[in-house]
Amino acid sequence: MIERHAYLLLKSWPRMASMAYYPTVTMIMWAFVTVYLRPTSNFLADAPGLFIGAVLLWDILFRGQLGVSLYSRNLGNLFVSPLRAWEMIVGQLVMSIIRTLIGVGAACFFAWLLFRFSIFSLGFPLIAFFVNLIICGWAIGLAVSGMVLRWGLGAEELAWAAIFLLAPVSGVYYPIAVLPGWLQTIAHMVPTSYVFEGMRFVLLDHQFRADLFWWALAINVLYMFAGVNLYLLAIGYARRHGMLMQMGE
Amino acid sequence: MAVIKPREAHASMSPVSTHTSAVVEVRELRKSFKHVDAVRGISFDVHRGTTTALLGGNGAGKTTTLSMLLGVLTPTAGSIRILGENMLRHPYRVLPRINFTSPYVDLPKRLTVGENLRVYARLYGVARPQARIDELAAELDLSDLVPRPYGDLSAGQRTRVSLAKALLNSPEVLLLDEPTASLDPDVGDRMRTLLEQYQKRSGCTMLLASHNMGEVERMCNEVIMLRAGLVVDQGSPLALLERYGRQNMDDVFLDIARDRVSPDHGASANGHGQGIVS
Fold first, then answer.
1. How far is B157 from chain A (nearest CA, A)?
2. Binary contact (B118, A3; C-beta < 8 A)
3. B108 min Cα distance to partner chain A (Å)
4. What total of structural domains would you count in chain A?
5. pLDDT for res A120
6. Total Cβ atoms within 10 A of residue A72
7. S-S: A107 plus which of A27, B90, B162, B259, CB 3.0-4.6 Å?
8. Beta strand B51-55 with B222-227: parallel, antiparallel or unpaired?
9. Residues A114-121: what's their mean pLDDT?
10. What is the band of A179 on the pLDDT scale with cuts at 50, 70, 90?
11. What is the pLDDT of residue A19?
C-alpha cells in the first residue's frame, strides 16, 4: 500500500508542489500579520512566532487528515486482493506522515528562511504537539474515508470541510478563554484545543504543560477508536451494498 | 456465424455435485438489495482445471455472483466454498490463491505498468516479484509497456496488463469478468489463447462471465445460464446446442434469455432438460 501511494505521490510534481504551496503561503500571510501587529502587541513582542507556530501546527493536523483520506478511485483490485483492512489503514497512516512532512516541512523551511522562525524553537514539546495533531488528523481522515466509501466520491468535499469544523474551537490563533461558555465546553472535547493552548504556554510562558498533553492524547485515543471503527463500518456497508467495485476511475 | 467446436463437459460434471474435484462450491446463494433480488438462491460447482461460463443478459446476476465469490459483496444468504475453504468466513485463506480480471476495474492510471505489477506482486506475496513480472511481461508481450503509464495504454494493452496482474500469484482459481470486452478480434483471440495456455500449464480453474458466445464455445467446458438471478439451465456447450437444437451458442443464449419457444422444436427453455436447476 505504501509503495502504491508513494509511486502516485512522488511522480506528480504538481501534487508535491501543491502540498507545500498552501502551508507556505498561509505561513507567509500570518508572518506578515505578525510583522504588522508586533509593534502594538505585547504578546507578539514576547512571542513573535505565535502565529507562525500556530499555522504550522494547524497544517500538521490538516495535512495529516488529508494524507489519510481516500481519494483513490481504483479500489476494486485492492479489495479483491489479500490486503486486509488494517494493512490498508496502516498504509494510509504512513503516507499521511510522509505527506505531512513534505507539506509542513516546506513551510517550516520558508518560515526559517524568510522570517527566522524555527519550528524547532518549540523544543521537545514539538514532538508532543506533532503526535497529538497527527493522530487527530488520522481519526478525522479515517472517518472521512468512511464517508467516501459510504457515499462515494461526492463526499470528497467533506475531506476539505471536515477539519475546518474544528478550527473555531481549537483556539489556533486565540485562547479558548475568549470563546463563549458553551463553545468552551465543546472546545474541551476537542484534542486540538489542548495542543494550541499548550503551544501558547510554551511560547509565552516557556512552560510545557504535561496535563494538556495527556488530555489531548486521551481524547485522541477515543477519536482514533471512533475513526477506525467508522472506517471499518463503512467498508462493511460498502461490501453489503456492492459499492467496492463501483469506484473505478 | 462460424460455429466453433464446443469443448466437452468435464466428465464428473453435474448441476450440483459433492464431487471432491469441485474447487468452487456455491449453495443457495442470494443477494438482495433494497429494491432488487439480484441473485435468488443459486447453486453450482466449478471443477478443477475446467472453465465455466456464467451467462445471462444484463442484470441476470453474473457480476453480482462474481463479486460475492471475490468477497467484495456480502451475500444475503447461502454459502461459498473455494479451494475447500469457507470464503465468507475465511476470505484471507482464499484470496492469495485466486485472482480476478475485468476491463471495468482499472489499475491506477498514473502508475507505470511495472509499478502497478510490483505493487500487486507485493500484495499477493509473490516470492520473487521482479522475476515473475519479467516472466509475465515476456509471455504477454508486455516488455515494451512496462515503463509506460497504465493510463497511456490502449484498451487491448490495458487488458493484457490486467491479465498479467491476475496471473501474478499463479492463481489456482481465476475469475474473469468479460475479459475480452471491447477488444478487437485479433487481441481478443490472443487473450483467449493466453488464458488457455495458462490453464493448460497450471491446471487453473476458471469462471468466466461473458457476452461473447464464440468465446464461451471455444473456452468453456460448462455453461451456467442465469436469468433474473436464477440458474435457468446448465450444461456443456455441446449439450446445450443439442438440447436447444441450435447451431451456435448465440441462439441458445437468446432462447434461454428470452425464455422463448424454439421455432424448430416447439419448446421453451424451461421446457428443456433441467429448466430452473437451482
1. 17
2. yes
3. 6
4. 1
5. 83
6. 17
7. A27
8. parallel
9. 85
10. very high
11. 80
Is the Cβ–Cβ distance between A12 and B112 less than 8 Å? no
Residue of A31, A55, A62 lying closest to A44 (CA atoms):
A31
Q: Which domain range does residue A51 map to?
A: 2-246
Check if A6 contacts B (Cβ < 8 Å): no
Alpha helices by DSSP H, listed for A177-209, are 181-187, 191-200
A248–chain B nearest CA distance, Å: 6
Residue B263 has a pLDDT of 40
Distance CA A61, CA A104 (A): 10
Q: Is B36 on the interface with A (CB under 8 A)?
A: no
d(CA A183, CA B139): 65
Return the CA Rg of chain A.
19
DSSP per-residue codes, B244-258? HT-SSHHHHHHHHHT
Q: How large is the ipTM? A: 0.79
Cell 474551537 sits on residue: A169
Q: Does A9 touch chain B (CB under 8 A)?
A: no
Query: Percent of chain A beyond pLDDT 90?
Result: 38
Per the CB < 8 Å rule, is A84 touching B92? yes
Q: Which residue has the cell 503551544?
A: A199
A11–B110 CB contact, under 8 Å = yes
Percent of chain A with pLDDT over 70: 94
Mean pLDDT of all residues belonging to chain A? 86
Tell me if chain B has a CB within 8 Å of the CB of A72: yes
Closest CA to A227 of A127, A103, A96, A102: A96
**What is the C-alpha to C-alpha distance for residues A179 and B56, in angstroms, rounded to an integer?**
64
Chain A neighbors of B109, CB-CB under 8 A: 74, 249
Cβ-based contacts of A239 with chain B (< 8 Å): 71-74
Residues of chain B scoring pLDDT < 70: 1-20, 260-278
| Domains of chain B listed by start with CATH number | 22-271 (3.40.50.300)
- Quickly list DSSP for A132-156: HHHHHHHHHHHHHHHHHHHH-GGGH
Q: With an 8 Å Cβ cutoff, is A15 touching chain B? A: no
- B102 touches B176 (CB < 8 A): yes
Q: B124 and A82: CB-CB below 8 Å? A: yes
pLDDT at A231 > cutoff 90 = yes
pLDDT at A16: 78
